[in-house]
Amino acid sequence: MSADDVAERISSMEIRGAAEIARQAALALKEEARSYSGSDLEELRSRVERGRDALLASRPTAISLWNGVQYVFKDTSKAVTADEYRDKVSENADRFVKRSKNALRTIGRLGANRIRDGDRVLTHCNSKAAIAVMAAAWEQGKRFEVFATESRPWRQGVLTANDLSELGIPVTMIIDSAVRYVMKDLDLVLVGADTIASNGAVINKIGTSQVALAAHEARVPFTVCAETFKFSPRTIYGELVKIEERDATEVVKEGEVPPQVKVFNPVFDATPPEYIDSIVTEIGVIPPYAAYQVIIKELGQEFIFNED
Ligand code: RI2
Fold this sequence. Notes:
Elements: H1 3-11, H2 18-34, H3 41-58, H4 63-72, H5 82-112, E1 120-123, H6 128-139, E2 145-149, H7 156-167, E3 171-174, H8 179-183, E4 188-191, E5 195-196, E6 202-205, H9 208-217, E7 222-225, E8 268-271, E9 278-281, E10 284-286, H10 291-305
Parallel strand pairs: 1-2, 1-4, 2-3, 4-7, 7-9
Antiparallel strand pairs: 5-6, 6-8, 9-10
Helix pairs in contact: 1-2, 1-3, 2-3, 2-4, 2-5, 3-5, 4-5, 5-6, 6-7
Bound molecules: 1,5-di-O-phosphono-alpha-D-ribofuranose (RI2).
1,5-di-O-phosphono-alpha-D-ribofuranose (RI2) is lined by residues 16-19, 125, 127-129, 156, 191-194, 204-205, 267.
């Protein structure tokens, strides 16, 4: 599949989830490089870079997409032949996918220590990282139950309910506005992340910050599960995270309200670090305030100082 096709599938949410869009984008660039069998390095480079631009424009918020794409271009400027360039892009894409899958396994193992037998856990939207934690805890023999928010307007909570049910984990679906009502009876909140800023703020599915506020009020630990490639090197430069706004028709059907009614459909929000108990990453469970160090240590050398 061409990078343009993958970009289209990401835009339309056929491919979704912050880590998955990054993996699919990396593999699309590999395919793009391999679809050109000629020996003109410049032609190959410009084809792959065109693909990169389409992929980066497909969804604006998740930094995982940008980090994944950057990873694919690592050291490609050193290539002197088309073959070398193609090999580098392929190797980097495969390595990114492998690293991201390994990270998920480690996050599962570390995060599982946060779940205790008998816990009632709430999750929002559909995060493979949060689900990895629940899956690992369940596999360790811990028995707990999960409340999954519906997550309007795309209703990713249905995916979560299915994912957890397949694992045998008891799950109760609630509408987003029921979060505060159930919070008093919960022990833990586990969510994913699309982007983590250098100040420790977590950008995740719209509604996450309301969940965090309710958890804070009820003194329920609010834990984020995220691979280090969800941390944003760009925020170190002071760049603000762009919050994606999607079409009104995702909220109200055509003709359901008069045309003068405005519909505002932001897809993500920012949870400030003071509401976050910890972030489970593949390099350990960290406080949100360690985000800056993670960016410098894990992403800094590759993404900031030696940018291709
Ligand atoms: P994993 C999703 O975004 C959700 O906001 C979810 O919490 C986050 O990506 C992380 O997902 P969307 O693509 O990488 O549904 O943990 O808009 O799967």
